[in-house]
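re the bet — no i am not wrong, look at it urself. input seq straight from the record:
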Amino acid sequence: MSAASLSNPRPTARERLLAAADELFYAEGVHTVGIDRVIEHAGVAKASLYSLFGSKDELVRAYLQGRHEARRVRLQAALDRLDNPRDRLLCVFDVLAELAASTSFRGCAFYNASAEERTGTGAVAEVCATNRAWTRELFLGLASDAGAHDPEALAAQLMILYDGSTVGARMDRTASAATTARVIAAALLDAATA
């Protein structure tokens, strides 16, 4: 075995399937992209998908769980660089602005997937609910740390602001909605701590 193969091993079938799902589902939608396209893009056999995930629904679940974990890690890393509670709260909108500035930004993977969901139950609904609950708790904790008199009310306002700026950034294909949302979040925080 060469040194190159040790330092850069070929991704596993699971990793290739998740990478293909992440790319295709985010770009085109979870219902639009068929399983055969994911398999072809990943370069694996159909049997690999079913032995690893069991169904397309479970692959979608894994894709969204991966998105949730990446989002959680990205936000936590940004928050960990800051000490000031005000800056930490506003940082959430800075991270969104950074993402929205990317040419590959297609909005929130969770909003997109849930918009395609017809029943509101199953894998998509479960992971989307988990992600949304985590975001609520994040805003609640940040609002509390920043000294808001009613952290729950501020967190609810910030959720709506975050939702709107995410959709606006997607629709306008610019980060301006997220940067504007940061200004509004600062005003809301000032009012909530006055």
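see?? DSSP finds ten helices and no strands in the chain. told u. also Residues 56-80 form the longest helix (25 residues). so pay up
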